[in-house]
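Problem: given the chain below (516 residues), write out its structure.
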Amino acid sequence: MSEPSPSYAELAALAAEQAVQLAEQTVLIEALRVELESLRRQVGRDSSNSSQPPSTDGPGAKAKAKADRQPASEQSQQSPDGQRSAGASGRPRRKQGAQPGHRGSGLAPVTTPDRREPVEPACCGGCGGDLAGAPGMVGSRVQVFDLPSFSLAVTEYQMMRRLCGCGHTTTAGLPTEVRGGPTCYGPNVTAAATLLASQDVLGIERTADLMSTLLGVEVSTGFISSCLTRLDDALTTAGFEQALKTALGEQQVLGTDETPAPLTTAASSEPDCHNPHVYTVRTMSAYIRGGADLVWYGAAGDRTKTSISAFGILDDFRGVLVRDDYGGYTSYDDDLAGVQQCLAHLLRYLDDAHAIDTDAQAWAKQVADALRVAIHEVNTARAANRTAVDAELLGRLRRRFDQGVAVGISTNLSRPWHKGNHPGLQLARRLKRKAHQVWLFTTRSDVPPTNNGSESAIRGFKLAAKVQGCWRTLATLQRHCRIRSYLISARNHGRRPIDAIRDALTANPWMPPQAA
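Solution.
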């Protein structure tokens, strides 16, 4: 006997129940879709689309970077529309090595060599006869630049004691470059050890080992450490760091950046030292080929506005600051002549937003393309010694930027995200709010579009952290910063670092030029 058919009321109740289930499933599916989108974004983030350092890139990111590196033989190939091909990131591919316009370097012959050594032919290349006493001239020249052999030369200073007719006996004092006794290293060994130990790729232990290997004598870590202390004391006594800060404050354009700097567990446990960072503030003269750059480094136990102000550089600065959008710097904006947002950071964020959904977030690519073209046009104008870019072209690029940002806001205004607002909405709103800081480089030829100069300046500390692991104390890190500030700035101004070290140790350090 067949079961009775369900009544209309039963069917209606079942339909209502299924409708509720479908609604719940729809909400769950949407939530899972958003979560999956977020996880894919998180997995796909690397140094090319975020602020993550390249050292954290995984195999996938490295494979993507490798795919973007096009063989030099393919560089001349163009797409049908005449444009250069682009890699997976959407950026034009470049061949490896120096790019067009890069200034090469190499040995240049000197007018007066230290020594000339004639090289005679063994015999006549024709008949094989003896050429001794035959007339001749210099056929060609090769200048060989080399170091003298690595061996210590020991000099004994004998401090003479003389008896005056008055009956008083006087003993000569040590020469200026001699320190300690009865034995000690001379100024050249001291300067070389100081230079090696102050580099980012060598610690005190490795420097001691390297000096021992080169000189053939045992060089202790205590001596290396004392060399750094002596140089730091000499710079402090001369007031070098304050003079450098004063010179930086007088500039029209500065760049600033910071990076974490690991300390030992004991040092990080000290008060106000829970998040140690190294900071840099530098001039941008090289960008406009306007002279040598000054570079300052400093360290603090945290990444707060209080620590940044304590350095005594930015509080009274009234020029243009090139930086990323870290909140510790934004409070200075009202007192500055302008701010240039680092477009290298913004382009990575735009690439990241576009990767979330290449269709829905197409606006991000439009904005990024507009910025990349603007950067290219400004760099082309600079290469041609032009101070201005086609205003009509810049106007079109700015409109494309503004339109893309507006689409980014409207597209993502109601788009769900598992935590807070959609990243595309956050980025688009930020670009709209700070558009004047994004485009400043197009109106001032002395302002670079990126903060790559500052990032490059501070890269050595990241390398030092990888090589050495950490610094023992914040004071040791601050000492390293002062010494690096001195050596890099002096070198930029044409002073050999090893000569700058000797100058400082004889109370005559190189000092940064002050504004007239």
